[in-house]
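Lab notebook, page 48
Experiment: co-folding of the full assembly
Goal: obtain a model of how the components sit together before planning crosslinking
Operator: M.T.
Materials (sequences as entered):
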Amino acid sequence: MTIEKRRQREIEEMKELILSAASSIISDEGLDGLSIRKIAKKIEYSPSIIYHYFNDKEEILNNVMQRGYKKIVSAVSSKELAGTSPEERLVKMTKNYIMAALKVPDEFIAAQLSKSEEALKHTSSLFKGASKVKPALYSLYQCLQDIYKNTHMDEDSIELTAQVIAVSTLGLIIKIMVEKDIGEEQRNRLIDFYSEDIVLRIVNGSRSSNK
Amino acid sequence: MTIEKRRQREIEEMKELILSAASSIISDEGLDGLSIRKIAKKIEYSPSIIYHYFNDKEEILNNVMQRGYKKIVSAVSSKELAGTSPEERLVKMTKNYIMAALKVPDEFIAAQLSKSEEALKHTSSLFKGASKVKPALYSLYQCLQDIYKNTHMDEDSIELTAQVIAVSTLGLIIKIMVEKDIGEEQRNRLIDFYSEDIVLRIVNGSRSSNK
DNA sequence: TTTATTATTTAACGCTGTTCAATTTTAGAA
DNA sequence: TTCTAAAATTGAACAGCGTTAAATAATAAA
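Observation: model returned without errors.
Model output:
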């Protein structure tokens, strides 16, 4: 029994070894720099062994992506935000999300752009009802519900707003990552303007524009 | 003289042949499906010859990307929009942009995500002053200037707003492309809501939220 | 200690981008 | 038209890729 457990622990350790090697290669050389053979060399095993712990390269990539993605999701659900006004929470949540994403750029972009079913399980956010089952989106959705508490905004519009804010933020993050040379000042200007200004325009502007 | 010109025309034709083969492979098998050897087979030449017309695969990719990207840019500058109110123009421009982008998905995503200098020459939009030198962004910027004509909104804020709207829209486009299975109905709901509602909230909400 | 199981490696396949030397085709001069 | 120089095109090779199958080494159970 106990020997069985040790074996399983060893398997987990080996998986962990492979994943962290992959992770470090990605952060050194980018996503395209990752190869099975490089992982093997880094962990000092033969390439083939990797296929005893993962089915293929994509499975490894999915795992690395999920790790990076989870870090970011937790930034949005951070408890430090409780107590403040919903608008303030919204602003901070947005900024936290952007900052967290910029810290793990390659994994984040990969996760968000992957069309693999495994990745979409976590990243998909546009389907009807997504705001109730996707943790990151749910935080945003709750925030909007608080903001619209005393208005007669219907649930569908709130969900759509949450979804659109989420993808908008993603667009900003991706562009900032790609245009790596815009400079820190301009980057901060954009992030501040977006989270402190644009996002509030979106939630407040809903009173002046009814379709 | 005339023979020289013919030669150069032939070179252009060969480049064209290579690029359109590449383009068709991409639209058949996606970006990852593209390989030099496949292009060679398609144009019925040996793989090596391609390197007489292009330096490497990336140069080919850059060319294909630019073509797709230009189609989309022209959708925003379309003249059919003249005469209408600036708000209406903004809504239509946004929708045109999204629709055009969804028609050439792979090239578009590739262009927007490429960190190559060549691609960034066209796609970069976040640097200070971008709205005056980037055609697609300039159309948006002009539109905002019209909308804010009689307010005392400073130029910097208008530029930032244009930039943020551009990247937001990009985020929506990318997510719709990645989440290919959300269904036509939900897709249209999102696009309509975004372009007819959210974008107007952004430009109109600026009066109610001053930082 | 033998046997069965599991972990790991070696070798190979077909693919990739790219380069170099050899070959064919073309252009201009004699 | 024939010879020569230049250009276009090819064939072969290199190093790297993901992946698989069979062979070997290490471990567990009997």
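Interpretation: The mean pLDDT of chain A is 93.
Next step: discuss with group before ordering constructs.
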